[in-house]
Design a protein that fits this description.
Oligomer: single chain
Low-confidence stretches: none
Distance between the termini: 28 Å
Radius of gyration: 11 Å
Number of strands: 3
Mean pLDDT: 86
Strand content: 25-35%
Helix content: 25-40%
Largest sheet: 3 strands, antiparallel
């Protein structure tokens, strides 16, 4: 289970971010740092970094 702030939930809906991306960021959170990390999860390519101690999704798109 992932806890989101109201602002984060609205951003996810606005940007149409798949829930799988949030799940993936939770799994890779221990290796994230201030530098963006690009990784694949299932059929998604995700760019994320750690900001303020929690993962931040920068970009998500479907892999071809």
């Amino acid at each position: 289970m992932v806890a989101l702030t109201k602002h984060a939930a609205n951003r996810i809906l606005e940007r149409e971010i798949p829930f799988e991306a949030i799940e993936a960021c939770r799994m890779v959170a221990p290796i994230l740092n201030k530098n963006p990390l690009r990784f694949r999860y299932r059929d998604l390519v995700i760019v994320a970094r750690k900001a303020g101690g929690s993962p931040r999704i920068i970009s998500v798109w479907r892999a071809e």
